[in-house]
């Protein structure tokens, strides 16, 4: 329903005959927001699968990096769809509000638009961070591991090896 009140406090309401009778920009904004929800859901699943700490996908970090990059692209698409839908709706609301000859109900920008703008910005920033953070290594590239000493506790030194004089004591001679 579309309701409006006058200065005396009387409400005048009229029914929309159908959901498809809404203006075209509202239907397009609705479709873009549904697409944003779908992109965000698949982006979240792809990001969770692509994390190094998840067991899904095994130890193939090249594949996990690519899946994480796909999640970042999906988050970017979510943010772009959200920003287009919210900004288009806000532009039409503002245009109708300042039009003196507009015969319909005049709406104002509300809190939902600000929440939409902030969520779109966060989705774009999150997708960009995911794309920048997931370094896709070449499969032929070897990963450098830090030096691990052997299990016996002997550490090899890079210095010159000196030989000591043989002693008359065996291994068990010490107290």
TrEMBL record:
<dbReference type="GO" id="GO:0005198">
    <property type="term" value="F:structural molecule activity"/>
</dbReference>
<feature type="transmembrane region" description="Helical">
    <location>
        <begin position="31"/>
        <end position="51"/>
    </location>
</feature>
<keyword id="KW-0796">Tight junction</keyword>
<keyword id="KW-1133">Transmembrane helix</keyword>
<keyword id="KW-0472">Membrane</keyword>
<dbReference type="Pfam" id="PF00822">
    <property type="entry name" value="PMP22_Claudin"/>
</dbReference>
<keyword id="KW-0965">Cell junction</keyword>
<feature type="transmembrane region" description="Helical">
    <location>
        <begin position="72"/>
        <end position="94"/>
    </location>
</feature>
<comment type="similarity">
    <text>Belongs to the claudin family.</text>
</comment>
<dbReference type="InterPro" id="IPR006187">
    <property type="entry name" value="Claudin"/>
</dbReference>
<keyword id="KW-1003">Cell membrane</keyword>
<protein>
    <recommendedName>
        <fullName>Claudin 15b</fullName>
    </recommendedName>
</protein>
<dbReference type="GO" id="GO:0005886">
    <property type="term" value="C:plasma membrane"/>
</dbReference>
<dbReference type="GO" id="GO:0005923">
    <property type="term" value="C:bicellular tight junction"/>
</dbReference>
<keyword id="KW-0812">Transmembrane</keyword>
<dbReference type="InterPro" id="IPR004031">
    <property type="entry name" value="PMP22/EMP/MP20/Claudin"/>
</dbReference>
<feature type="transmembrane region" description="Helical">
    <location>
        <begin position="114"/>
        <end position="134"/>
    </location>
</feature>
């Amino acid at each position: 329903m579309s309701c409006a009140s006058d200065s005396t406090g009387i409400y005048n309401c009229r029914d929309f005959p159908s959901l498809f009778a809404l203006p075209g920009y509202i239907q397009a904004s609705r479709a873009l927001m549904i697409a944003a929800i779908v992109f965000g859901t698949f982006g979240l699943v792809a990001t969770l699968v692509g994390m190094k700490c998840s067991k899904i996908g095994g130890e193939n970090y090249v594949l996990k990096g690519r899946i994480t990059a796909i999640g970042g692209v999906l988050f970017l698409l979510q943010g772009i769809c959200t920003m287009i839908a919210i900004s288009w709706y806000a532009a039409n609301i503002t245009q109708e509000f300042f039009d003196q000859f507009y015969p319909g109900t005049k709406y104002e920008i509300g809190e939902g638009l600000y929440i939409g703008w902030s969520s779109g910005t966060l989705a774009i920033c999150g997708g960009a961070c995911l794309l920048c953070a997931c370094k896709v290594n070449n499969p032929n590239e070897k990963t450098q591991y830090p030096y691990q000493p052997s299990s016996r506790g002997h550490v090899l030194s890079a210095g010159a090896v000196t030989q000591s004089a043989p002693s008359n004591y065996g291994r068990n001679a010490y107290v």
